[in-house]
Amino acid sequence: MTEMDAPLATPCNIQICDVTCDSFRIMWDMTPEDSGRSTHFFIDLSRKESRDPNRFKHRDVPTKLVAKAVPLPMAVRGHWFLSPRTEYCVAVQTAVRQPDGDYLVSEWSQVVEFCTGDYAMDHLQQLLDKAKGSAGRLLKFSVFYRNQHPEYFDYVSKECGGLMRPALKDISGSHGSPINGKLQGVFFSCSTEFDTGLPPKDSPYGPLRFQIPAGNLLNPNISLYFADFYCMYTAYHYVVLVLAPVGSEGDTFCRTRLPILDLASNPFLTYTAPQRPGEEPLFCHASDVILEVLFTDPVPLDQGSVEQIRGHHQLMSLTTANAKKDPSCKVCNISVGR
């Protein structure tokens, strides 16, 4: 048996490093002999939840990625459309391509599991650039509001000392948004009707509405961040913004993870300071997207008012709890996964 025909050792000690939302680097231990003669690596990658990992059916007929042997660690990107924050399983074989074109291959390594990361700042900047094109003209508004059922406000009054406390953001929207399942806040809306300039009469979230003057949540002591842009198989799009008091825990979380927006000059939500003594600040919101505004600190009920709203309260198609983003939409998707 020649050296080229000698069996290849099974790759061991698989290590994954430098994981991003759409790439990773992989390395493993090989004997010096195998390292010197390996010509190719076979990489088998599958989502963790898959019940059929679809390993190579034949040892010498690769059906997934075949990469030329390179010094390890090897970067893996672009070969698959990796999704952010998704658990994967990966295994490897080393191989020697023989003169007749067949491969001498090792046994499969053990299967290693890892999870891809959130969108990085440059990915969010791509998403922000797309969102800017859908924002539309700015409309004036004067209040932020939150629609809920009576049970919610009873609970806040009796059990929470009158404070609407931050809750963990769900996983709706873009899978890679860094705030999903990680940042706590209280959601508010600020959209107005074109004909009245007032909040809409209808709500999918409940018949009671808490309204608070816009300046209580949007002012020079607040940092404004862009967090997401998505749709749910519909013509309209959502933009998620974060309002965090400067220096707060929420502000610290967002500072290194989300693009910060200029309060006075951005296409989504603006605060313009009074120009003359006695004037009021001017607040504006984007007209062609649905804004979801997450305020990261508790909000006292006594800063606003709770009132019954007119209209219907079962527009469930507009609710977004844990909703999946449309992966086929060309308007709100970027190239690094869904």
UniProtKB/TrEMBL annotation:
- Which residue numbers delimit the Fibronectin type-III domain? 10-119
Cite a GO CC annotation.
cytoplasm
Under PROSITE patterns, the record lists:
FN3
Q: Which SUPFAM superfamilies match?
A: Fibronectin type III
* Pfam families to which the protein is assigned, alphabetical: PHYHIP_C
Q: Which UniProt keywords apply?
A: Glycoprotein
Among InterPro entries, the record links this protein to: FN3_dom, FN3_sf, Ig-like_fold, PHYHIP/PHYHIPL, PHYIP/PHIPL_C
Protein family membership: Belongs to the PHYHIP family.
Report the protein's function: Its interaction with PHYH suggests a role in the development of the central system.
Q: Summarize the subunit comment.
A: Interacts with PHYH and ADGRB1.
What protein does this entry describe?
Phytanoyl-CoA hydroxylase-interacting protein
State the organism named in the record.
Cottoperca gobio
Q: What is the lineage of its organism?
A: Eukaryota, Metazoa, Chordata, Craniata, Vertebrata
Write the gene name: phyhip
